[in-house]
Amino acid sequence: MSDETVKYLLPENRIPKSWYNIVADLPQMPEPVLHPGTKQPVGPADLEPLFPMAIIEQEVATERDIEIPEPVRDVYKQWRPAPLYRARRLEKALGTTAKIFYKYEGVSPSGSHKPNTSVAQAFYNKEAGIKKLTTETGAGQWGCSLAFAASLFGLEVDVYMVKVSYGQKPYRRALMETYGARCVASPSTETNAGRKILEEDPENRGSLGIAISEAVELAAQRDDTKYALGSVLNHVLLHQTVIGIEAMEQMEMADADADVVIGCAGGGSNFGGIAFPYIGRNLREGKNTRIVAVEPAACPTLTRGTFAYDFGDTAQLTPLTKMHTLGASFMPPGFHAGGLRYHGMSPLVSHCKELGLMDAVSYNQVECFSAAVQFAQAEGIVPAPESSHAVKAAIAEALDAKEKGEERTILFCLSGHGHFDMQAYTDFFEGKLEDKTYDEALLQEALSKLPNVG
Amino acid sequence: MSDETVKYLLPENRIPKSWYNIVADLPQMPEPVLHPGTKQPVGPADLEPLFPMAIIEQEVATERDIEIPEPVRDVYKQWRPAPLYRARRLEKALGTTAKIFYKYEGVSPSGSHKPNTSVAQAFYNKEAGIKKLTTETGAGQWGCSLAFAASLFGLEVDVYMVKVSYGQKPYRRALMETYGARCVASPSTETNAGRKILEEDPENRGSLGIAISEAVELAAQRDDTKYALGSVLNHVLLHQTVIGIEAMEQMEMADADADVVIGCAGGGSNFGGIAFPYIGRNLREGKNTRIVAVEPAACPTLTRGTFAYDFGDTAQLTPLTKMHTLGASFMPPGFHAGGLRYHGMSPLVSHCKELGLMDAVSYNQVECFSAAVQFAQAEGIVPAPESSHAVKAAIAEALDAKEKGEERTILFCLSGHGHFDMQAYTDFFEGKLEDKTYDEALLQEALSKLPNVG
């Protein structure tokens, strides 16, 4: 009849007590963050207009284990520890010799891994006496997750949502508003950055880079307001390591160990979350677990970008970080995995890639949706378009193992469910979904505009 | 800082081994089901065109505990035992002296309690050699849940979806199709029932009663095809009792006992699921736990309907059951809790109401959405519009306890999340949501057409 459901669930007291900081184990420190004006390394004071000191300290921390405050663990309890499943039905459908495990982060109230960091950020800001957070969001997963966390800690939130998504994803917007956040289409007339862009191009449909500029500009102006980012930065990836820490313990429960660990990568947060504890174990214990980041072929930061200093935003308000980038002025084509549509990549993930500690692959969206449908019919969970990239890579690994007659243990992060993304599935079924190609000339132009540093 | 998250999670081996059959404890048997033609009590053979024998046996079973087959418990493992939460943050927001607990069924892959029965129904049909299931769906929760279960057991599914919802809820339809089901707008030209209605009224926008007629008609025609219903019938409510059985054990973990148990009621399935184990305990142990069904004021089956024999569908193809009904030809006004928009009520729930074993209240949709937003901002979970009725009633109980200075322990079933229903929240925020009133003349006309039995 049905094949066995195999779920590994940790008890509540196994929610990690510390986040894992990969910097402590790296053979070489990442390059420093530079001030956008002076191009000299930033100090904590430079970041204070944007973040509370506790978060700045985490951004530059070098100790391996960083304690998770009790009030944060307490909120985590609502959905953590998140389940780890063995995909027995999918294995059977593929006829593979491989074992496939997935860590499911869609059990959070906003349906993705993002609350792992939004709860921590809301907590530290509340502790610092902050009243309001500003942020940007693309497809809306991050905006919803910050709005959720802020509602629990009694903080106001203004979300600058990429205008094209604001129109296309009214339901994510409604979720933010349900949590009490204010959602503004970006570019807006509320900021200098937004007004400047609208003057030049009243029809501008926005980008993550523009929305970041707006959110950063407003946070910097007020003492009671700070900025929150949902990916890319060190402290964000730090908070996400609960994914990998739990998964490693659950794999032990399953009496298995991963040969390959897979995560989709946009800014790098769920990828870093599942991968960093495994990269750290490789480094400390001389293990050889393969680590694979999966990105969209239409926005291939790790596989086609340059490793260089760049801005995180369009208006060049953010500090400069050394990362894989397609150039801050690069505009990726529209595709459904909005959470992977960013020109840059986490500096820590980029650094690991440069050090040869991980691989990266890219896939087109049609093959990813096809994999997601196969997964849903076997496992019952509908992946978010972002997560479908990890699903595709896991299936490719399983089929490769089958072809080679190898046993192989595959672990991937299913970072969120697709209940808010069913239009994408509708397009897929109606044959309207097309693979998108970035504009090579645009990429070269964006890369030629990278800031000249050092 | 944040108030404590209190979650009670049972280990996997505490998934119930049996469903609870309330018939065993009732002081009086419910009235028999009648054949639509002869108006004589039906026997198993009369139901065979629609259901496999294992389900027919459950429909008429009188023993208290009915074993859950291992393959069904195995699929339940994917999300069960479902969590029970204490709503500490909501209690604080209300300033109430009451304790509020909620059993959360939105953790299933389709986001509601419906898979508790769809998995069982898919299993029994597969065991009986059935190839295809037909069913109806309104807002789509049931259709998605049956499609999910059928995909795991390798059954085909044809879902007749109320035409107005088919247009308004394309994302639920996309979810059904992702699970491999075929979704047809009802009334359709695929059935005699559908064609007849379209001939009389080509613009007919459908109803649950019509969609049931279509699904039943097709199932009855083919030996390899059976019909599956998502609510109302005894076996469906039986399967849902895992909700209440688990909740009762979790309340013991919390060292608490419910003074009042609340569920929203459309056809009665999540309500019966949480309430029947408590009604049974009242009967067996002489306890006095209050049981409250909550229905929409615009479709007030229990509070304004007649207790009489009626058809479950419009074309009068179903057997006659004695239940609270607004009349099979009654057309409720459009409101957002599509899952509560049905003219009838579970015969078992109706019987309990007639025996004085439970109460019923009704609320309008605007006050329910207002309660749902307050709940989401305190507890982080966005309720489905149907579930918002239970939330509203729980808040009303908590405020009543506060006014009276009473300690009171409230348990309610949060039957699903609202991630597919954000248009309703958008309408609420934009002030477009209005309370709907049913047409009293229409109700009287529908009641006057009740079949003349005995």
Automatic annotation (TrEMBL), chains A, B:
Keywords: Amino-acid biosynthesis, Aromatic amino acid biosynthesis, Lyase, Pyridoxal phosphate, Tryptophan biosynthesis. Gene3D superfamilies: 3.40.50.1100. Pfam families: PALP. The keyword rRNA processing does not apply. PANTHER family: TRYPTOPHAN SYNTHASE (PTHR48077:SF6), TRYPTOPHAN SYNTHASE-RELATED (PTHR48077). Tetramer of two alpha and two beta chains. This is Tryptophan synthase beta chain. It comes from Candidatus Terasakiella magnetica.
